[in-house]
Design goal:
The protein has about 750 residues and is of the alpha+beta class. About 50% of the residues lie in helices and about 15% in strands.
C-alpha cells in the first residue's frame, strides 16, 4: 500500500469517527432514553457493509448514513430506533444483507423501517410513469405503517440536496424538481417548517443559480436597514413584556430566497416591492401550561396597545391548529415607519412543533392526550382512501395527492357547530364527501349560513354548512370539474368507474338479448357495424351507451346488420383494424418509412442550443416560450424530439418529477441570430400620448419590432400587453428598464401570455 493511499485511509477513518462522535453527542443531549449501545452496533454494522465504497463527492459512503441520522436526531428530534434505521437505510439496497439479517441483529421495529425505506429507495420516481405512481403509493403506504419511514426519507433527501453539487446538471434538475414537487410539501404537511424552507431554497439554488445569488445579494444589501427596523419596532414591545414579567425571546424571521422569488414571479413585482421580508416572532415560556393560550392573547393585547393591528389580518392558529399541528397567533401591526409587520406569538412548545412538526408532539404527549395526532391521522386516512382507487394516469394521481399536500386551510362548521378543517377553495360538494361518501354521492345542494347554494359554491372560513340530499340523486360526471379536494375527486372517479362498469355489463347483456331475439349472430362484424352506425370507436363505448340508455336498439340497427357485405373477408382485412384503433400493414410500413432517424442524445452532456439546432432539431415549448438567457432545460418526448422549457414552467415541474431520466441540461448559444417573441405587461397612470411614448422607446430608440399591442384605460389607469421580437433576455431587461423611465409608468414586467383583456 502506498503512503498516499494509507494517509487517505487514515483521513477517511478520522472523518468517519468524528461524524459518528458528533451524532452520539447530539443524541446524548436529547431527552430520549440513552440507548448508545444499539446505535454504536448499527454504526459498526453499516460501516463494515459500506466499506471501500465512495460517494460521487469522493468521501466514504458511510458519511451519508451518518449525516441522515444526524438530521433525524438533531433537526427532526427522532430517537434511537430512527437513528439506527437511518444508519442502516442503504444496507439492504446496496449490499448483500437482507431485511431478515437486520431483523435478527436489530429487532423487528428497526427492520420494518429499513424495509420501508428500501422499498422507496432510488427516489420516488423510476423511468416509467407507472413505476413512479407505484413507488409514490409505496411511500404513502409506509407513512401509514410508521410515520418515521417518511421522516427518515425526508432527512435522506435533505442530505442529498445539501450535497447536490457533485451531480451532473440534468440529475440536479431531476432531483431539485422532485424535491419541490413532492418532498417540500410533504415536509410542510408534517410540520417540518425549517426543513421545508431549506429544501425549497436548495432546489431554487440549483435550478436558478443566478436568480438565487441575486436575491441573496439583495438580502445582504438591505440587512442593516432591516436590523434597524427590527430594533426600533421591538424596543417598546420588550419594555412592555419586561414590565409584565414574561419570560420570552424575540427573533427576526426573514423570508426565504425561494419565497421571495416565488412572490416576485406570481405578483410580477420587483424585490423592492416585497414588504413582508421581515416578520417578528415572540416565543414565550408560559408560567403555567394550562394558561398557555390565555398568555398568547395577553401578549397580543399588550402589543396591540403599542401598535395599531390590521383588522383583517389576525390569524388564530392557537385555538384552531393547522392540520400539521402548527399553533401560533399571527397579528399584523403598523410600525412607526408606516410599514405593516407580521408578529407571530408562540409558546416554546408551539415553537418546537412549528420547527420539528409531529416528531415534537412526542416530547409533549402524555398517555391520555391524542388530540395532537388527530389531524395527521385524518390526513393519512384520506391518503389511504385515494390509494384504494388511484387514477390510472400516474401524473393525475400525483396531482390528486398534491391537492392535499399543498392546500392552505379554512375552518367550517357543521349544523351542530362542530369545526372541520378543509383545504382552501373547497366547495359544498367537497364538504359533503369529507363527512361521508353517501352524503357526497346523494348531495343535491347545500345551505351555507342558512342560504341555499349550489354544489359548486366555494366555502369561506367560518361558514356553517348543511348538506341537502336526495335518494334519487347520483354522481354526475360534471362534478369532477368543481370538486377540489383529493378525497372528493377520488370518490367521484371511483363511483363513476363503478357505474360505468355496471352499465357496460348491462349494455352487453341487452345487446346479446337483442341479437338473439332477432336471430342475428354475435360476432365482431356485427358489433363493428353497430359501432360505426352509432359513431363509437370501441365496443365498450357502445355497451355503455346501451346500458345508460343513451341509445335504444331498434329497426335501424336490424337493417344495418342485415346488409350484404362487399366481400366475405372485407371486415377481417379492412374494417376491424380501424374499428379497434389498429392500422393496416401498408399503413404501418408507410409510417416506418416516413419516420426521421432518431437523434442520438447523450443525456450526460450539456446540449448546446445553436441557431441551426433550434430551427431544425429542437422545439420551443408553447406553455412557457423560453428565450436565450432564460434558465432552461431540455425534455426528450415519446417521439424522441427535444422540447425546450423554462425551468420554472409548471409543465416542466411535472416533467422533472415524473420523467427525470429524460431531462437534458442545456446552454444557449444563439447570439443575435434568431428573433423570439416575448410579452411585456404594462400598467400606470393614464396621460395624453402614453402610447406614443411607449412605441417611441421600443421602435425608435431601441429599434425593436412590435408584433402586437393592446392598451386599455379604465378610471385613469392604463393597462396593457405588448408582444415584441427580441434576441435574448438582455434585450428584455433593456426594454423594461427604458419603459420604466416613462414618468406615468408604474409596472413593467415580462409575462408568459399576451392578453387583449389584462
Amino acid at each position: 500500500m502506498t503512503d498516499e493511499k494509507q494517509k487517505q485511509e487514515q483521513a477517511d477513518e478520522e472523518m468517519i469517527n468524528q461524524g459518528f462522535q458528533k451524532l452520539l453527542d447530539t443524541y446524548l443531549a436529547t431527552k430520549h432514553r440513552k440507548k448508545v449501545e444499539i446505535i454504536t452496533k448499527a454504526f459498526n454494522f453499516a460501516k463494515q457493509a459500506h466499506k471501500g465504497v465512495k460517494r460521487r463527492s469522493g468521501e466514504p459512503y458511510i458519511m451519508h448514513p451518518i449525516a441522515v441520522a444526524q438530521i433525524a436526531c438533531e433537526e427532526i428530534g427522532l430517537g434511537s430506533t430512527s437513528i439506527c434505521a437511518a444508519l442502516l437505510h442503504d444496507v439492504v439496497e446496496d449490499t448483500d444483507y437482507t431485511v431478515e439479517d437486520i431483523e435478527n441483529l436489530f429487532g423487528p421495529k428497526i427492520a420494518q423501517i429499513v424495509d420501508g425505506l428500501t422499498k422507496i429507495s432510488g427516489g420516488i420516481f423510476g423511468d416509467r410513469a407507472s413505476a413512479q405512481a407505484e413507488n409514490f403509493k409505496k411511500l404513502l403506504l409506509t407513512m401509514n405503517d410508521d410515520i418515521r419511514v417518511i421522516l427518515i426519507k425526508i432527512a435522506d433527501r435533505l442530505h442529498n440536496m445539501r450535497t447536490l453539487g457533485s451531480m451532473l446538471p440534468n440529475k440536479q434538475y431531476k432531483i431539485a424538481g422532485e424535491t419541490l414537487y413532492i418532498y417540500a410539501p410533504l415536509a410542510n404537511r408534517l410540520g417540518l417548517n425549517k426543513i421545508k424552507t431549506e429544501l425549497e431554497d436548495l432546489s431554487f439554488k440549483y435550478e436558478h443559480p443566478e436568480e438565487y445569488a441575486r436575491i441573496e445579494a439583495m438580502l445582504k444589501e438591505t440587512k442593516e436597514e432591516r436590523e434597524e427596523l427590527f430594533n426600533d419596532f421591538t424596543a417598546p414591545i420588550r419594555e412592555k413584556l419586561d414590565k409584565k414579567g414574561i419570560k420570552y425571546r424575540i427573533l427576526a424571521r426573514i423570508k426565504s430566497p425561494y419565497s421571495i422569488w416565488n412572490k416576485m414571479q406570481t405578483k410580477h413585482i420587483p424585490f423592492e416591492e416585497i414588504y413582508d421580508i421581515l416578520a417578528v416572532r415572540i416565543i414565550f415560556e408560559p408560567t403555567d401550561p394550562e394558561m398557555e393560550l390565555n398568555e398568547c392573547f395577553g401578549i397580543y393585547v399588550s402589543i396591540s396597545k403599542i401598535y395599531k393591528p390590521h383588522p383583517d389580518r389576525l390569524r388564530d392558529w392557537v385555538n384552531h391548529p393547522k392540520s400539521n399541528g402548527y399553533q401560533a397567533l399571527h397579528v399584523t401591526l403598523m410600525s412607526n415607519k408606516g410599514q405593516w409587520i407580521e408578529v407571530q406569538i408562540r409558546s416554546e412548545r408551539m415553537n418546537d412543533i412549528a420547527e420539528q412538526g409531529f416528531a415534537a408532539h412526542w416530547k409533549y404527549k402524555d398517555g391520555n392526550n391524542h388530540e395532537d395526532e388527530g389531524e395527521l391521522e385524518k390526513w393519512l386516512r384520506t391518503i389511504k382512501e385515494i390509494l384504494d382507487d388511484p387514477q390510472p394516469d400516474a401524473m393525475d394521481f400525483l396531482d390528486t395527492i398534491k391537492l392535499n399536500l399543498f392546500a392552505s386551510e379554512i375552518f367550517v362548521f357543521t349544523p351542530k357547530g362542530e369545526i372541520k378543517t378543509m383545504p382552501q377553495n373547497s366547495t359544498a360538494l367537497d364538504f359533503a364527501f369529507s363527512i361521508h361518501t353517501f352524503l357526497g354521492s346523494h348531495c343535491i345542494g347545500a345551505k351555507v349560513n342558512h342560504k341555499l347554494v349550489p354544489l359548486s359554491h366555494k366555502l369561506q372560513s367560518g361558514d356553517q354548512v348543511e348538506i341537502l340530499t336526495s335518494k334519487s340523486q347520483r354522481v354526475q360526471p360534471s362534478w369532477i370539474n368543481f370538486a377540489s379536494t383529493a378525497k372528493a375527486k377520488a370518490k367521484i372517479h371511483a363511483i363513476l368507474k363503478r357505474e360505468q362498469r355496471g352499465m357496460q355489463q348491462a349494455g352487453e347483456d341487452k345487446l346479446q338479448a337483442f341479437l338473439s331475439q332477432e336471430n342475428l349472430e354475435w360476432n365482431d362484424d356485427n358489433i363493428h357495424k353497430l359501432c360505426v352506425l352509432h359513431n363509437f370507436k370501441t365496443p365498450e363505448e357502445l355497451y355503455s351507451a346501451i346500458g345508460f340508455k343513451t341509445i335504444i336498439l331498434g329497426e335501424e340497427d336490424i337493417n344495418e346488420l342485415k346488409k350484404e357485405k362487399a366481400s366475405a373477408n372485407n371486415w377481417k382485412k379492412f374494417i376491424i383494424p380501424f374499428a379497434f384503433g389498429g392500422k393496416s400493414n401498408k399503413e404501418k410500413q408507410q409510417e416506418e418509412n416516413d419516420k426521421e432517424p432518431a437523434q442520438k442524445i447523450d443525456s450526460k452532456k450539456i446540449l448546446r442550443l445553436t441557431p441551426e439546432g433550434i430551427q431544425k432539431n429542437y422545439l420551443i415549448a408553447d406553455c412557457c416560450k423560453p428565450i436565450p438567457g432564460d434558465d432552461a432545460l431540455g425534455f426528450i418526448n415519446d417521439k424522441n424530439q427535444i422540447i425546450i422549457h423554462k425551468r420554472q414552467c409548471k409543465v416542466a415541474a411535472k416533467l422533472k418529477s415524473g420523467f427525470g431520466n429524460r431531462l437534458l441540461a442545456v446552454q444557449w448559444e444563439t447570439g443575435k441570430a434568431l428573433d423570439f417573441p416575448v410579452n411585456i405587461y404594462i400598467k400606470g397612470i393614464d396621460a395624453m400620448g402614453i402610447l406614443h411614448k411607449v412605441s417611441d422607446i421600443v421602435t425608435e430608440q431601441l429599434n425593436v419590432n412590435i408584433r402586437k399591442i393592446f392598451i386599455e384605460t379604465v378610471d385613469g389607469i392604463f393597462e396593457g400587453h405588448i408582444q415584441l421580437y427580441v434576441h435574448n433576455v438582455e434585450d428584455v431587461k433593456v426594454i423594461i428598464k427604458n419603459l420604466q423611465k416613462i414618468e406615468e409608468m408604474k409596472v413593467v414586467t415580462r409575462v408568459e401570455k399576451f392578453e387583449d383583456r389584462p
